[in-house]
Design brief:
Oligomer: single chain
Radius of gyration: 20 Å
Distance between the termini: 40 Å
Length: 235
């Protein structure tokens, strides 16, 4: 059975309001998550996006072309049951946030980092009363405990669906601050991704672009865009 692949068996995917949210049905049959829970989502827009993904399937079902469905599955099957652990994982990026680790040289790179990263650290300092320390190099630096606690509280305010998206926004950029900036719509996902890649783009300017690295970057850019879309669909 290892070679078996699910194939389209339905004619139409539809949405339906229910007690607690919205569901998607395939010819009247409710869509279930991989863990066999009902796929119930918080907004009509999200349900419609999921239904559209199912309707776009032709022949063999390709989960890699269904990012909104996958995020919803993850929120229900993984994030919900392990909510506190996921909050810890996401907020943990604040203790080693990318924006706090600066180049020592050359000065042009130092200036680029400061121009894009300093305003975001100023923003989180004001918005969450969470100042963070900076260092040059990669040796770990301790962050104020109060700041880390306040940042964790921000993450813990998210519901399981938003947290699933925030997880990817943070993990892809390597920065809790960038992830929160996208979630709070201070930055677009594309802007945040660009800001997170300052060092890599500097190296590419010096030594030329590596084809494999460029392909990986394109995949990450696509993934962070999907995370942003899912977050917005949460309402």
């Amino acid at each position: 059975m290892s070679g078996w692949k699910a194939k389209r068996f339905w004619k139409a995917a539809t949405t339906e309001a229910c007690d607690g949210g919205f569901t998607v049905r395939l010819d009247g049959r409710p869509v279930k998550t991989p863990a066999k829970s009902l796929l119930m989502v918080p907004t009509q827009g999200m349900a419609e996006a999921i239904a559209a993904e199912w309707d776009e399937q032709q022949g063999v079902i390709r989960p890699d072309t269904m990012p909104i469905t996958r995020f919803a599955n993850s929120a229900i099957d993984k994030v919900g049951p392990l909510f506190d652990a996921v909050v810890d994982e996401v907020s943990g990026f604040g203790s080693s946030d990318l924006l706090c680790y600066r180049a020592e040289t050359p000065m042009e790179l130092v200036a680029r980092q400061a121009a894009d990263w300093d305003p975001l650290l100023d923003w989180i300092k004001q918005a969450a009363d969470a100042p963070l320390n900076l260092t040059a190099g990669v040796i770990p630096i301790a962050q104020p405990e109060d700041s880390l606690n306040r940042l964790r509280s921000l993450v813990a305010e998210e519901d399981r669906f938003r947290l699933a998206a925030l997880h990817d926004l943070v993990a892809i950029t390597g920065s809790l601050i960038l992830g929160l900036a996208v979630a709070r719509r201070r930055l677009s996902a594309d802007q945040a991704f660009q800001i997170s890649r300052i060092d890599e783009h500097w190296q590419a300017e010096l030594w030329g672009e590596d084809e494999e690295a460029a392909e990986i970057e394109a995949l990450k850019r696509k993934a962070i865009g999907e995370a942003e879309r899912f977050y917005k669909l949460c309402g």
